Amino acid sequence: MNWKEFARDYLHFTRRDRIAILVIVAIIIVVFLTPEFISKGASTNAVQTETAWVASLKQLEQKEADGETQRYSSYSDENPGNYQYDRSRNTYYASGKGELFYFDPNSLPPEGWARLGLREKTIRAIQNYLSKGGRFRKAEDVKKIYGLFPNEYERIAPYIRIAAADKPVAETIYQKEEKKPVKTYTSGITVIDINTADTTAFISLPGIGSKLSARIVNFRNKLGGFYSISQVAETYGLPDSTFQKIKPYLKLDNSSVRKININTATLDELKAHPYIRYNLANPIIAYRKEHGSFTKVEDLKKVMVVTEEIYQKISPYLSLQ
């Protein structure tokens, strides 16, 4: 078969064949190009949608900012340079920080209020109120003072200590040279010993209910007694803010604690202590089995997992007898 015969038999297409080939090629082209067009269209729509959303969000933020600025304009105009707007908290805050200390608002002199960081106009309002026979009977009365911002009250509220009306103040609340908090009489609240007080005594403290009082007593019993007032703060579920409120009413006259004999205690006895648990009890028992009885409590530092910090924390509860 020569070339002409081959071409005639195998490479010759009828009109119908040519039309079919063109249709197939067209379909292939459409299949390959359609996703690209769809992608470009979707991208354009997405960009337009995102742009419109961002523009709307910025417009909304601007309206909110304008509204807040107008809302607090009296503050900023009245106290130029002293307050700034904090958008993250939607409030104004003082650019200068005052010093915090315990005080009685009924006897605190003007320089004491200034030391707390209050403005002159607010101090004048307080002094005017007191000079006319006014008296703060509870901490919440202070926030009623004209010109005192809410965030200012929240900052100083935990340090307000109002003396009982029928008792003299034992010491001056504000001392110009002495910067340490001064203990004062407080109406209706009795100072309690943290190692002897029952749940009823703890409930009498501000912010302490039946659940927290039971947890404090239960924690104390598991420890074997407190050797430091700060240990009360470790009670499960007790907020630090609440502990700071009750701390002035806590004392530790009876500092004796129940001790564990580290030479005879079993694994179960050691791990039952909140400060020891299994992670410390097991290495201590293992060390004692290998090296014999401890000759002094300080030998616990030879146990690899007992760091200086851990030793200082658990040693008051351990003995050799």
How would you describe this structure to a colleague?
By secondary structure, the chain is mostly helical. It folds into four domains: about 15-70; about 80-185, Photosystem II 12 kDa extrinsic protein (DNA polymerase, domain 1), CATH 1.10.150; about 190-250, Photosystem II 12 kDa extrinsic protein (DNA polymerase, domain 1); about 260-320, Tex RuvX-like domain-like (DNA polymerase, domain 1, Orthogonal Bundle), CATH 1.10.150. About 45% of the residues lie in helices and about 5% in strands. The protein is built from twelve helices and six strands. The chain has helices at about 5-10, 15-70, 75-80, 110-115, 120-130, 150-155, 200-205, 210-225, 240-245, 265-270, 275-290, 310-315; strands spanning about 85, 90-95, 190-195, 250, 260, 320. The strands form three sheets. It has a two-stranded antiparallel sheet. A two-stranded parallel sheet has the order 3-4. A two-stranded parallel ribbon has the order 5-6.
